[in-house]
Amino acid sequence: MTQHSEQSGHRVAFVCVQNAGRSQMAAAFAERERDRRGAGNRIEIVTGGTQPADHVHDIVVEAMAEVDIDIGDRTPREVTPEELQAVDLVVTMGCSASDVCPATWNGENRDWGLDDPHERPIEEVREIRDEIDERVVALFDELLSETPSVE
User: How confident is the model at residue 104 (pLDDT cuts 50, 70, 90)?
Assistant: First the structure.
């Protein structure tokens, strides 16, 4: 029996520079989607930034509250090279992975090319939020279709 009990699972990291906007929204939507699909034992979610801000942007907290997700108590955190080594997929939010994460990782990287919501009007933040939600749902469709069910 191996120590790694999540062999059939996935570890996904949502990363940006400040970890105060896009990556926080993505992680919150991913947690919600994981709960909705009962995939808690199959998908691990990591979020962080390379130069974390002091707090999640107020406008982002407000936009997420409109869809009944409270991220007001979350704190941006630094993502470590060790964490990135342990994930299967790194999703960056619109900043190229080489700029954001000089560390290398074993998994796949995707950049979602999203605008930074910081200091944007709420209407634009809502558009970014909704696009993140759609992308997270599509990502879960893909990840869970690849994961063999354990009989």
Answer: low
Concatenating the DSSP letter of every residue in 22-57 gives HHHHHHHHHHHHHHHTT-TTTEEEEEEESS--SS--
Residue 45's nearest CA partner among 139, 145, 115 is 139
Buried b (16+ CB within 10 A) or exposed e, 82-103: ebbeebbbbbbbebebeebbee
Burial class (CB in 10 A: 0-12, 13-18, 19+), 36: exposed
**pTM of the predicted structure, to 2 decimals:** 0.87
The token duo for 34 is: 């994981």
Q: Tokens 């069910």 correspond to what residue?
A: 149
